[in-house]
Amino acid sequence: MIRVMIVDDQPLIRDGLAMLLNLRPEIEIVAVAEDGADAVAKAVELQPDIVLMDIRMPGVNGVEGTSRIQQCVPAVKVIMLTTFKDSELIFEALEKGASGYLLKDMPTDTIVQAILTAHAGGLVLPPEMTGQILVELRKTKVIEAEKKDVPYTLFELTEREIEVLKEIGYGLNNREIAEKLYITEGTVKNHVSSLIHKLALRDRTQAAIFAVRHGISEYV
Predict the structure, then answer these.
(1) 4-aspartylphosphate is carried by which residues (predicted)?
(2) 15 versus 133: which is more confidently predicted?
């Protein structure tokens, strides 16, 4: 059973989601919290497997809460609960160690699948959401501002590695990338390992952030 904590400053959302998820046999709600500070204290005490964290809260927000949890109990996986308007905060949270993000009004089945994915070590970046979030990021000029300082290591990538990096930025997993690019899943895995090494990144999450921050879609 996966032990989950829900963090949201609105009791109706927090308790309603807890009630729905508690009905699932694979999930146990071990705590709820009202802000990032409360979440950190309870994460240290209870060490849940997964934290569903609202990104905007008074006091300590979700980004800072995620950062503190990752520092104190790095084994805990955090999934951000957000809206499309939180584009910049989403990627700050990923940089702080979040395992992905979901919209608050997602169906329960989608939230459960995200919990299972994060618990298994995967990254929760829904492709249909990521595309729209990229649009929001471009509106705020985040990508345009940072593209001017694209690391020189990008130019060490092959054309195929850049294509794979682009799809990682859109939230696709290895199987989906393989199907889209008409290559094997093993080949995708090799490309992912190679580009992470060449770009001196820690993992796939950092690769996704790199792709979005530097507008990799513009290079393909």
Answers:
(1) 54
(2) 15
